[in-house]
Amino acid sequence: MRRGPLVLLPAIPILALLSAVWLPFVNTRSLWLGMPRLFVWCSVWVMLITPTLFVVDRDRRRRLSLATTDIGTGAASTGTASTETRSAAEPRR
After folding, report:
1. pTM, whole model, 2 decimals?
2. Domain locations along the chain
3. In angstroms, rounded to a whole number, what is the distance separating the alpha carbons of residues 12 and 26?
4. Closest CA to 1 of 53, 43, 59
5. Phi and psi for 21 in degrees, rounded to 5?
6. Cα separation of 50 and 68, whole Å?
7. Residue 13 has pLDDT above 80, yes or no
8. Burial class for 40, CB neighbours closer than 10 Å (0-12, 13-18, 19+)
């Protein structure tokens, strides 16, 4: 199965975190919201990692369901859904 361009989305927060110490407007002694700029910068990007991973996972699940259902085409399933591990509490969609 081909990966979509959204797989690269989590790279944005990671690059922002890794480049924080070299960005002159972030790595200074002044404050944002009463806290050091570097602390605020890193906190915001860490909080943005979860929504980006959610978007990537949502897209992956959508692509997986489209690949395995193939309604009306008669195409065979790719078989990737059966190899995916699911917990007992997670409902099937």
Report:
1. 0.63
2. 8-67
3. 16
4. 59
5. -75, -20
6. 27
7. yes
8. middle
Tokens 């480049």 correspond to what residue?
19
Asked if residue 20 lies in contact with residue 26, where contact means CB atoms within 8 angstroms, the answer is yes
Residue keyed to tokens 């489209």: 66
At 53-75, the pLDDT tens digits run 999 999 989 888 887 876 556 55
Place of tokens 């199965």: 1
Query: Which has the minimum average pLDDT: 29-33, 50-54, 82-86?
Result: 82-86
* Residue 51 binned pLDDT confidence (cut-offs 50, 70, 90): very high
**Residue from 52, 48, 26 nearest 39 by CA:** 26
18, two tokens: 């890794």
